[in-house]
Write a structure and sequence with these properties.
Number of domains of chain A: 2
Distance between the termini of chain A: 11 Å
Order of helices and strands of chain A: HHHHHHHHHHHH
CATH topology of the largest domain in chain A: MetI-like fold
CATH architecture of the largest domain in chain A: Orthogonal Bundle
Number of strands of chain A: 0
CATH architecture of one domain in chain B: 3-Layer(aba) Sandwich
Helix content of chain A: over 70%
CATH superfamily of the largest domain in chain A: MetI-like
CATH topology of one domain in chain B: Rossmann fold
Radius of gyration of chain A: 26 Å
Distance between the termini of chain B: 35 Å
Strand content of chain B: 15-25%
Strand content of chain A: under 5%
Number of helices of chain B: 7
Shape of chain B: globular
CATH class of one domain in chain B: Alpha Beta
Oligomer: heterodimer
Structural class of chain A: mainly alpha
Chain lengths: 292, 270
């Protein structure tokens, strides 16, 4: 029984035994969901604390502190970097590289994917080349990009962009090909123009694919920026990390990784909010559960 | 005919499809041959015949989605050479857009046709009320039952008031009760509207209950074997159509003619 029927029934006779049962089950269901949510949140906090505590306690007696550091030292290193303003200074370059690379790669992948998916012959011609290019480990292009664009931020943006581009591009094409072909025909009979079809049918059909690609590629953009910085740079969190490694400063190294983690999580959250909005029609967002 | 201009006319239509067969070889097959048909305005006409006999292909030609290989399909006296936006098309799958609410789905054709929002709202409300879907305007398709989705697909097409409605097994996937209820609703919406309906079905009872005329197709390559006038007055009672005195004899005759076509496929006989 779907929710629409439940709603229709509810409008009928508010005081029948069936309606009272329905309201009770609804209240219980809300209560149950509330408990699940609370337990999930509590469990996460407990898991995180356990993880950090065992790390803290194991580091020294069981594990060599030189290699794994410990959370208290990492926190101290983070604080130190914050007050000396080195962290934010380096972070701004890394964020600039990752975000620019992400926007360029995702934008290019979307536009080119859209164009190519609509030009059948062109797509047939270039498809094997795209697949071949997709097959090479793109991170191996990083040294080449540094050669081309120098050791400034441009080369890092290029590495981040190429990592993002292909995933968004291929997913966009797959998404557009998933548009409902029978409805496209019916829509033409209804009088739809090509532009109507793209805007009202093809693009919405492709959004689940595009959103998935936009989520997957957030860490990719960061990988591109950091790897670029590893290879050659004098600023950025990648530079900070590799310098810390050079000084055998594991606490500083972990502090850099932690900073990256926070940035990626924030970027991911933004994409998730966008995705939930665009996909609010999707049955997987807020499904109706069978009540037995 | 009797001076009435036909709305749809097929003149010696042939259709050949090219399909990709095994080992990449191209294989062409004849889907329709010598199809001649005249449909006058306001008639409810059903196409019946064995699977794969080209009934749906003929609908696609009237809609301008498929072109005849030879011959002509005429719409209001002119050959159909591009997509025919004067007709409405309802398929077996409801093809509702999952990202649009019921009301937005109902309004989609009006959006394509550039109707302003206020008028879209007003017309959608009228059609939604006509099939009793009030209260569900803001539900998404996955929140609706099969019958509600089908009603939505029906009014989504009727809302732009096409003078001809093509229906390709529209009630096929529904359960038996919902199907009869929807047949009844379709007749009530159609009667007095002056619209022409071309309706493909495999269900002879459905064809008899709804139609003025039944066009029987032969097995593939499809050609029109016979056209019958349904000897039952309107308004019809679809719930008790089998109890009508004319029903048994007419059904038997139709079934005997159709059975010949099916039996020859089943037995592989000459």
């Amino acid at each position: 029984m779907d929710i629409a029927h439940l709603a229709a029934r509810a409008a009928e006779a508010p005081d029948s035994p069936g309606q009272r049962l329905l309201r009770r089950v609804e209240a219980e269901e809300l209560q149950r969901q509330h408990i699940v949510q609370r337990n999930t949140a509590l469990g996460r906090v407990a898991f995180g604390i356990t993880l950090l505590a065992s790390w803290e306690l194991a580091s020294g007696p069981i594990l060599d502190q030189f290699f794994v550091s410990k959370p208290s030292h990492i926190a101290a290193a983070l604080w130190d970097m914050l007050v000396k303003e080195t962290l934010l200074y380096h972070l701004q370059f890394t964020i600039l590289e990752a975000v620019s690379g992400y926007l360029i790669g995702a934008g290019g992948g979307l536009v080119l994917g859209f164009v190519l998916a609509r030009l059948d012959l062109v797509y047939r011609i270039v498809e094997p080349f795209v697949v071949a290019f997709y097959g090479i480990p793109r991170i191996a292009l990083a040294p080449l990009f540094i050669l081309w664009f120098g050791i400034g931020i441009t080369s890092k943006i290029a590495v981040a962009a190429i990592l993002v581009f292909f995933i968004v591009f291929i997913n966009t094409i797959a998404g557009i090909r998933s548009a409902p072909t029978q409805f496209l025909q019916i829509a033409r009979v209804m009088g739809a123009s090509e532009w109507d079809l793209v805007r009202k049918v093809v693009f919405p059909a492709a959004t689940p694919f595009i959103i998935a690609a936009l989520q997957i590629t957030v860490p990719q953009a960061m990988i591109g920026a950091i790897v670029g910085e590893f290879i050659s740079s004098n600023r950025g969190v990648g530079h900070l990390i590799s310098r810390a490694a050079g000084f055998l400063d594991t606490a500083g190294l972990f502090a850099g990784i932690f900073a990256l983690l926070v940035v990626v999580l924030a970027m991911n959250q933004g994409i998730t909010v966008l995705g939930n909005y665009l996909m609010r029609w999707n049955p997987k967002h807020g499904t109706v559960r069978d009540v037995s | 005919m009797s001076g009435v201009e036909p709305v749809i006319e097929a003149r010696d239509v042939f259709k050949i499809f090219v399909a990709r067969a095994d080992r990449g070889r191209q294989r062409a097959f004849l889907a329709l041959q010598h199809v001649n048909l005249t449909i006058t305005p306001g008639r409810f006409v059903s196409f019946v015949g064995p699977s794969g006999c080209g009934k749906s292909t003929l609908l696609n030609m009237i809609a301008g989605l498929v072109r005849p290989t030879e011959g002509e399909v005429m719409y209001k006296g002119r050959p159909v050479t591009s997509v025919n936006t004067e007709v409405g098309y309802i398929t077996q799958d409801d093809n509702l857009l999952p990202w649009r609410t019921l009301q937005e789905n109902v309004e989609v054709a009006l959006e394509f046709r550039g109707v302003l929002e206020a008028e879209r709202r007003e017309r959608a409300a009228r059609y939604i009320a006509m099939v009793g879907l009030n209260g569900f305007e803001h539900h998404y398709p996955h929140e609706l039952s099969g019958g509600m989705r089908k009603r939505t697909a029906l009014i989504r097409t009727l809302i732009y008031e096409p003078s001809v409605v093509l229906m390709d097994e529209p009630f096929g996937p529904l359960d038996a009760q919902t199907r009869v209820i929807l047949q009844d609703e379709l007749l009530r919406v159609w009667e007095g509207s002056g619209k022409t309906i071309a309706f493909v079905t495999h269900d002879l009872v459905e064809a008899i209950a709804l139609s003025d005329e039944i066009v029987l197709f032969s097995r593939a390559p499809g050609t029109i074997k016979r056209v019958y006038q349904v000897p039952i007055d309107r308004p019809r009672d679809v719930f008790h159509i089998h109890a009508h005195p004319q029903f048994p004899a007419f059904y038997d005759r139709l079934w005997r003619d159709l059975k010949d076509e099916i039996a020859e496929i089943a037995l592989g006989a000459t």
